[in-house]
Amino acid sequence: MSAIGEILKESKKVVVKIGSNVLSDENGFVDKDNVRNIVEQVIELIEAGKQVVIVSSGAGACGMATIHKWARRKDINYRQALCAIGQVELMMEYKEGFGKKDIHVGQILLTKEDFSDPDRTLRIRNTIYTLVDENVVPIINENDSVAVDEIKIGDNDSLSAQVVTLWDADVLVFLSNIEGIYDKDPGASDDAKMIEEVRDIDSLLDNIEVKGTSSFGTGGIATKIEAARRVNEYSIPAILLHGKKKDILLKAMAGEEKGTIFYGKEVAFK
């Protein structure tokens, strides 16, 4: 059994962060087939006795797919309006997918202010616990339709790390459009090698070049590494997998797919 497989099998509480590039195609429209496949995998995890919270990007991509004539509009009013429209479409995809197994979903939209107020943070925590305890899948996203710089979390990688620590999850899984962390840019170097295990993030950053964000999202390699660092401080591992690969979660749990593991403190010194 692979290390990733062991961690996923042993984890009871799983946070799955899904990136915009995983939920959208090369043109920025919603990749409905991939959304359905991810939902089907999460259902299998739930049927196996796991609890799952989803942190989902993709509202902007869904908005552009719905009202394509606004795609070239770059000012903040239109971008936030697209997110408001797209969030409805995104939730409908999740609702329909999980509904096939009579599983309900619940939407939680957050800003940085929600995590700076102890009372609001407690209410978020209680809402997540209540939904999960009642077999409802929480779908969490930043409230992009109202968030401005002063109250913006910034990216859903950071948000997912906050959700992990708030819910006391066992593992954070990033579903991205790359297989893992490489020692150099695999798009520019034929000899790039994937780093399957990271036990020291500072050492990693000293030895790789970190740059770039996705075309349809705000995150990138750097934000995932920093989110992994945050959960690792609480002895929680993080796993990076290629979310565009069919059945990636199930195959990784079975030891059939590789990715990068960021080990938490306790795990690193077993």
Please describe the topology of this protein.
Layout: H1 3-10, E1 13-18, H2 20-23, H3 32-47, E2 51-56, H4 59-66, H5 76-99, E3 105-110, H6 112-116, H7 118-133, E4 137-142, H8 156-167, E5 171-176, E6 181-182, E7 194-195, E8 197-198, H9 201-207, H10 221-232, E9 238-242, H11 248-253, E10 260-262, H12 265-268
Helix pairs in contact: 3-5, 4-5, 8-10
Q: In a few lines, what is going on in this structure?
A:
Mean pLDDT is 85; it is low at 148-152 and 211-219. With 270 residues, this protein is an alpha/beta fold.
> For the record, what CATH class applies?
Alpha Beta
Distance between the termini: 17 Å
Main β-sheet description: 8 strands, mixed
Which stretches are poorly predicted, pLDDT < 50 over at least 5 residues?
Answer: 148-152, 211-219
Q: Give the overall shape.
A: globular
CATH architecture descriptor text: 3-Layer(aba) Sandwich
Salient structural properties:
270 residues; alpha/beta; Carbamate kinase; eight-stranded mixed β-sheet; 12 helices; globular
Please tell me about this protein's structure.
The chain is α/β, with parallel strands linked by helices. The protein has one domain: Acetylglutamate kinase-like (Carbamate kinase, 3-Layer(aba) Sandwich), CATH 3.40.1160.10. Helix 3 crosses helix 5. The two termini are about 15 Å apart.
